[in-house]
Amino acid sequence: MTSTTDANTDTADATGTPGASGTYGELRAQLATLTTEAFRPELAEIDRLSTEEIARIMNGEDATVPAAVAERLPQIAAAIDATAERMARGGRLIYAGAGTAGRLGVLDASECPPTFNTDPAEVVGLIAGGPSAMVTAVEGAEDSKELAAADLDALKLTADDTVVGISASGRTPYAIGAVEHARAQGALTIGLSCNADSALAAAAEHGLEVVTGPELLTGSTRLKAGTAQKLVLNMISTVTMIRLGKTYGNLMVDVRASNEKLRARSRHIVSLATGASDTAIEAALAATDGEVKDAILVILGQVDGPTAARLLTESDGHLRAALAAVRTT
Asked: Which residues are catalytic?
């Protein structure tokens, strides 16, 4: 899901003079303090190198990102545990960002229904400027805290929700505004940025500052910063879903079989989990309306489809707990 509120793109007058948000000089001064915006003189003639040389430099830069993420693993884990606790009570995971950061949030949210069989309303991606901003820059949208608050109000935010503000610079008003508004409503807040001592991290209950350093192309935070954000968002959604019982070991037992590939994958998952014959797998899936988790419980627990559904409901969807309940009865 993306923001449904249109952004006001009129941020400067006909002479190019910015409005009340401040002068260009002030903004340039702010950007000059950010490591993600720093100029690297040693790469000033990168355009004169061969394609392979540039690719090797870029690959070396990318290799530094996982180490930067690793430095923040304790903070990331704490944020995930807090998120899972809220979602177990019925809360939602909501990403909010502008530009590349917003697109990454929408991407992660959109992958959760097919991967974990979540309702589209459970994991939501808000991008400054609304759906059109996914493919075309909406100028000025990222500069509005009020836009972020309006987008969250449209979702009817609750105290059980988690809002993750995403901004490479850590200064984007839309992301900060989302976190500030969510925190005022009692929601859990996470601020993901790629600069130290960021305003976004300071505004959030859980500040995650993955410092990736200056980019190969000065200020192009779709590169290392974007990669770091993608890695952290992968962790937040995936580990949260593991904590919520959406997997059995490393198997996606809540996968939604919406096409031929996923239907084949469903059968493969049941086979890996149970070691059952193809005939037994087809029978179990038929007895459970194609639900992979239920089918595994039918086979391993030797119960019928309705019993499997009941046991999973009683165990809040955790397959291991449902299996333990079968074995103790």
From this structure: 111, 142
Residue ranges of E strands in 134-186: 162-166
pLDDT at 38: 85
Judge whether residue 9 has pLDDT over 60.
Answer: no
Q: State pLDDT tens for residues 266-315.
A: 999 999 999 999 999 999 999 999 999 999 999 999 999 999 999 999 99
pTM of the model as a whole: 0.88
Distances from the Cα of 227 to the Cα of 9, 63, 100, 175, 214, angstroms: 28, 10, 10, 18, 13
* Cross-strand partners of 164: 95, 190
CA distance 267 to 287: 14
Q: Cα(224)–Cα(58) distance, rounded to whole angstroms?
A: 9
pLDDT band per the 50, 70, 90 thresholds, residue 33: confident
> Residue 30 burial by CB count (10 A; 0-12/13-18/19+): exposed, middle or buried?
middle
Extended beta strands in the chain, E state: 93-97, 123-127, 162-166, 188-193, 206-209
Q: Which residue has the higher pLDDT, 251 or 14?
A: 251
| DSSP string covering 210-266 | ----S-SSTT-TTTHHHHHHHHHHHHHHHHHHHHTT--BTTB-TT----SHHHHHHH
Distance of alpha carbon 208 from alpha carbon 126, whole angstroms? 19
Per-residue pLDDT, 91: 98
The encoded tokens of residue 17 equal 């003079």
Q: 277: how many CB neighbours lie within 10 A of its CB?
A: 11
CA distance 239 to 83: 10
Beta bridge partners of 125: 95
Nearest alpha-carbon partner for 178 in 101, 82, 80, 86: 101
Pairwise CA distance, residues 126 & 98, whole Å = 8
- Please tell me the distance from the alpha carbon of residue 164 to that of residue 169, in angstroms, as a whole number: 15
pLDDT digits (tens, 9 = 90+) for 40-52: 889 999 999 999 9
